Amino acid sequence: MTRIVAGSVGGRTLRVPAKGTRPTSERTREAIFSRLAHDGVLDGARVLDLYAGSGALGLEAASRGAAHVTLVDSARGAVEVARHNVSALGLGGRVRVVGGDAARHAAGLAATPGDGLDLVFLDPPYDLAEDALASVLAGLAVPGVLASGAVVVVERSTRSPEPAWPAGLAPTARKDYGETAVYYAEPNARVDDVPAVP
């Protein structure tokens, strides 16, 4: 069972796609959101959830005070489930669901005028090719796409190599939860390596 951990719709359960997704565990989500809350990232945030699946990460952000969330997934089943979850939670005014390719969506952000994103989640399938992930990250690193102080959260298998960070986007921390490695990155960060979070 997948549920929203905390916030305005905390405790509510979510539907998940029947196949093709790997929902982030509740323990991992709680750890991610505790860190984001501590860093003051969530309140009023503009959030993008790529490879959204059921929308659990983006919906958790909305429950915890994000102002606007966009969920993006290319699988029709995932899009339908995410739309159901948004409606069932009554978050339609702040959350929109987009069916489409993550790399194409990220590449199109630079052409869309508006305020930069404050928070981006990328939780792709573990078998996504490293160059495909690098292409999505490159789209996010284009100046103006991310707001100053934005945070990018990437989930990968602990057996996968570290993501190839583009110029303008650098890692600030890594934390492992079982088989899941969670990377945090920021625009224009000046960090030479990826320290583990205690």
UniProtKB/TrEMBL annotation:
EC number(s) from the headed UniProt entry: 2.1.1.171
GO molecular function, one term: 16S rRNA (guanine(966)-N(2))-methyltransferase activity
Record keywords, A-Z: Methyltransferase, Transferase
Enzyme category, top tier: transferase
Coiled coil: none
Pfam family, one: Cons_hypoth95
Protein name: 16S rRNA (Guanine(966)-N(2))-methyltransferase RsmD
Gene: rsmD
